[in-house]
Amino acid sequence: MLEVRSVTRMFGQKAAVDNVSFSVDSPAFVGIIGRSGAGKSTFLRLMNRLIDASAGEILVDGRNVLALKGGEARAWQAQCAMVFQQFNLVPRMDVASNVLHGILNRRSTMQAMFSLWSRADILKALDILDRLGIAEQAPKRAEALSGGQQQRVAIARALMQDPRIILADEPIASLDPMNAQIVMDALKKINVEDGRMVIANLHTLDTARRYCDRVIGMRDGRIVFDGTPDQLSTGVAREIYRADDSFNEDATSTSIPTDTRADRSFADVMLS
Q1: What long-range pairs does 192-198 form, CB within 8 A, spacing at least 24?
Q2: Beta-sheet strand order (sheet of 165-169)
Q3: How far apart are CA 237 and CA 241, in angstroms?
Q4: Is residue 191 in a domain?
Q5: Residue 192 pLDDT more than 70?
Q6: Among 31, 160, 197, 218, who pairs with 212 as Cys (CB 3.0-4.6 Å)?
Q7: pTM score, whole prediction
Q8: Predicted confidence band at 169 (pLDDT cuts at 50, 70, 90)?
Q9: In which band, very low, low, confident or very high, does the pLDDT at 164 lie, cut at 50, 70 and 90?
Q10: CATH number reported for the structural domain that contains residue 197 in this entry
């Protein structure tokens, strides 16, 4: 399904992503871990075509997405949705409109300018928000929501695109443990129930072990570990993070509670 072949991205003389290769043959939940500056975010941006690669190929069902141009590249970005650490919502816009912006590139300029959405689109957006437990927030401005709620809105916007792959760049880095669990549970549910591949950059070892089917460790732009969560030992973590024998996993972990529920109530939102 996904094959990454010798992908490299240079910034001057520095290789931010250095000859990265791996393959995934099912819609798995893949976690990428490593220190800041390891190349994790750069790789996701290469995959989504936010930046161009210096060399290599990323094949999805045999098609090299790095070679796509124009409309085909934009179509690929819709199939490979991004969720960012800082949410990237429009703060003063209501939640439902933020979600609907996931399909903005499929609408005419006139429809986009005047926010002319079909009833079917609005109902789909509300359906997705309901699934994520925040439908009652639909009429509120995005800036009025908590960080965890905003991140779920960002996930809803990604789902509005009906993507094959969701790329999540440090999706819980700015969240408290309770909201981190809610967001990670949502991503895992999407992966399992929808059969969508999720590739998430993560800082925390316990999160990678708990949610991922596959873990890739990056250091200095290169892959230094590729295996299952069970194989992610403290020794392997030392290698990934280039740490000495005093390495403490608590420095790369977060305490995520084991029993947290999102509010599942649904508020009436008028369709006009």
Answers
A1: 195/27, 196/27, 196/163, 196/164, 196/165, 196/166, 197/1, 197/2, 197/24, 197/26, 197/27, 197/28, 197/29, 197/30, 197/164, 197/165, 197/166, 198/28, 198/29, 198/30, 198/165, 198/166, 198/168
A2: 80-83, 165-169, 197-202, 29-33, 214-219, 222-227
A3: 6
A4: yes
A5: yes
A6: 31
A7: 0.87
A8: very high
A9: very high
A10: 3.40.50.300
Report the pLDDT averaged over residues 259-270: 33
108 pLDDT band, cuts 50/70/90, is: low
Inside any domain, residue 187: yes
Task: List the end-to-end C-alpha distance of the chain, in Å, as a whole number.
Answer: 41
CA distance 179 to 46: 28
Nearest to 81 by CA among 56, 67, 95, 101: 101
- Answer yes or no: is pLDDT of 220 > 70: yes
Ramachandran category for residue 4: left, alpha or beta (phi over 0 → left; psi -120 to 50 → alpha)? beta
Residue ranges of the alpha helices (H) in the chain?
40-47, 70-79, 95-100, 109-113, 119-131, 147-160, 177-194, 205-211, 234-241
Instruction: Report which of 7, 1, 263, 39 is spatially closest to residue 136, judged by C-alpha positions.
Output: 263
Q: How high is the pLDDT of residue 117?
A: 83
Strands 2-11 and 14-24, bridge-based pairing: antiparallel
Q: How far, in Å, CA of 58 to CA of 4, rounded?
A: 5
Per the structure, how many domains does the chain have?
A: 1
The token pair at 17 is: 């992503």
Nearest-angstrom CA–CA distance, 14 and 155 = 32
- The parent domain of residue 211 ranges over 2-247
State yes or no: pLDDT of 262 exceeds 70.
Answer: no
Residue 265 inside a domain? The answer is no
Q: CA of 206: how far to CAs of 201, 212, 214, 248, 268, in Å? A: 13, 10, 13, 13, 38
Residue 252 lies in a domain: no
Determine the pLDDT at residue 253: 52
